[in-house]
Specification:
The protein is 34% helix and 17% strand. The chain has 324 residues and is α/β, with parallel strands linked by helices.
């Protein structure tokens, strides 16, 4: 019986966690169909994950989960030792980092962090300094033994083109795998109203929460519902201190998938201000629900998830009008 391995110890929350939640039932069905099994290496969320007959979770926590340096050591050294003992047929890393499992098993890698083509701003130094480091080192991390992979998986054509500009030799190995939405319901409304916006994203400096809240401040008649509450990190604490008194902003904090779905249904539209994405899973989820989406006309990543979507409304990044 063939046995597979998947490493995703940093898939704890936000979009990566949503991807893991989507992957597991699909993986389970595939394993049952082919009579295979899989070891899935996860972080401290192990007790939150559903049980599947053919999937065994292996918890990896502590320093390997918290530090990118030690996680790099885990991906490059420890995975080789694990592969030697377990004789996996194939190892998929979801961490942007290619594992070193040769000669014991073949491997593939899923690349999804857009930091290598980001344009950092000075306020990153205060609110999210690790992102500056990621901007400097991520392309180097991508390149480390990337040619040892059988496949290199990305989410959309735009991201693939950016990669090939920097690593042209991987052209033949790249696979574009678009994510699915957890839900697929037709809830199109008969008329378009922008009285309330929903935005689900962790407060990273490039996710656009600051701009969203500036717009909310100028549009008190419109309700903005966001999935942060001021406790997540330095950035969210600053934003809550500055805008926490706005009556037209609902600070929800982290939600589970079912709660997110309910807010999609109750809001009038998704407002998506993020400057940097490889896909933007909320875009797919809102589209599958037939929800209007407002974003900015300089967001190149919209081409993949919103191709031919007739309820997309693009505005200038500093436009404050939400009328039809």
């Amino acid at each position: 019986m063939r046995k597979f391995a998947i490493s995703c110890i940093k898939f704890q929350q936000g979009g990566p966690r949503r991807i893991l939640d989507e992957l597991l039932p699909i993986l389970s069905g595939w394993l049952v169909e082919h009579n295979y099994t899989a070891d899935v290496y996860v972080g401290s969320i192990i007790n939150e994950l559903p049980i599947y007959e053919r999937i065994q979770y292996v918890e990896v926590i502590g320093i390997y989960q918290k530090s990118i340096v030690f996680r790099l050591y885990w991906e490059k050294i420890i995975t080789n030792q694990i592969a030697r003992i377990n004789s996996y047929h194939h190892w998929l890393s979801l961490h942007d980092i290619s594992v070193c499992t040769e000669p014991y098993t073949r491997s593939s890698v899923y690349l999804h962090n857009p930091m290598f083509y980001s344009k950092p701003k000075i306020n990153w130094l205060w609110f999210d300094p690790p992102q500056i480091i990621f901007r400097l080192v991520y392309l180097f991390l991508y390149k480390l033994n990337i040619n040892s992979n059988s496949f290199i998986v990305v989410q959309q054509l735009f991201f693939k083109k950016r990669l090939l500009e920097r690593i042209p030799e991987i052209q033949e190995k790249i696979i574009i795998s678009r994510p699915n939405s957890i839900y697929n319901q037709d809830t199109k409304s008969s008329e378009l109203k922008f009285d309330s916006f929903f935005y689900t994203a962790f407060p990273r400096i490039f996710k656009g929460h600051n701009l969203l809240l500036k717009i909310a401040n100028k549009n008190p008649e419109v309700m903005f519902i966001i999935t942060i509450d001021g406790t997540e990190n330095r950035l969210s604490k600053y934003l809550f201190k500055k805008y926490g008194n706005l009556k037209n902003v609902k600070w929800l904090g982290r939600l589970n998938a079912e709660e997110v779905h309910k807010y999609y249904l109750s809001c009038d539209a998704l407002f998506f201000p993020s400057e940097l994405e490889t896909w933007g899973l909320p875009l797919t989820e809102a589209r599958n629900l037939g929800k209007p989406i407002v974003s900015f006309n300089d967001c190149q990543y919209l081409n993949g998830p919103l191709d031919n979507y007739d309820r997309l409304y693009l505005i200038n990044r500093y436009d404050t009008s939400f009328s039809e």
